[in-house]
Amino acid sequence: MDIFSMIAAGEIPSYKCAENEQFYAFLDINPVVKGHTLVIPRREVDYIFDMEDDEIAEFQKFAKKVAIAIKSAFPCVKVAEVVLGLEVPHAHIHLIPMQSEADVDFRKPKLQLEADEMKAIADKIYAEFSK
Predict the structure, then answer these.
(1) DSSP assignments along 89-118, one per residue
(2) N or C, which end of the chain has less CB nearby within 10 Å?
(3) Secondary structure class of 27 (helix, strand, coil)
(4) pLDDT of the chain, 131 residues: tens digit per residue
């Protein structure tokens, strides 16, 4: 079981933003901006394009609902969707609220947020997702 699967299963703590039976969304612990969220399938699959067509369609629909919640919780111009990352062998989407393209620069220093602020951010997104 990889680290993202353990997070989705509740074996490793996370700041949950949304979930259903197939997918799980949680805050990135090294965010580039407040509200930076990861969306994963619960099924372990390394590469997003190894997912079945119907599964990837449902994955995108779930991510869209999470993005709408993020935009409501953190007003922004758009929510960027980025698929990258080789460090964890589990398909994932980064959803990043952005005011400009500079907000999606993964080379810039990451935010260092306290646990209570991370929880407040996740709770705000979860509340919007649950509407």
Answers:
(1) SS--EEEEEESSGGGG-TTSPPP---HHHH
(2) C
(3) strand
(4) 899 999 999 999 999 999 999 999 999 999 999 999 999 999 999 999 999 999 999 999 999 999 999 999 999 999 999 998 788 899 999 999 999 999 999 999 999 999 999 999 999 999 999 99
- Amino acid identity of 117? E
Helix, strand or coil, per DSSP, at residue 78: strand
Cα atoms found within 13 Å of the Cα of residue 65, Cβ hemisphere only: 17
Counting every residue written for the chain, the total comes to: 131
Q: Can you tell me the distance from the alpha carbon of 90 to that of 41, in angstroms, rounded to the nearest whole number?
A: 8
Q: Are 22 and 58 in contact (CB under 8 A)?
A: yes
Which tokens go with 38? 């990861």
Read off the pTM: 0.96
CA dist 71 and 84 (Å) reads 21
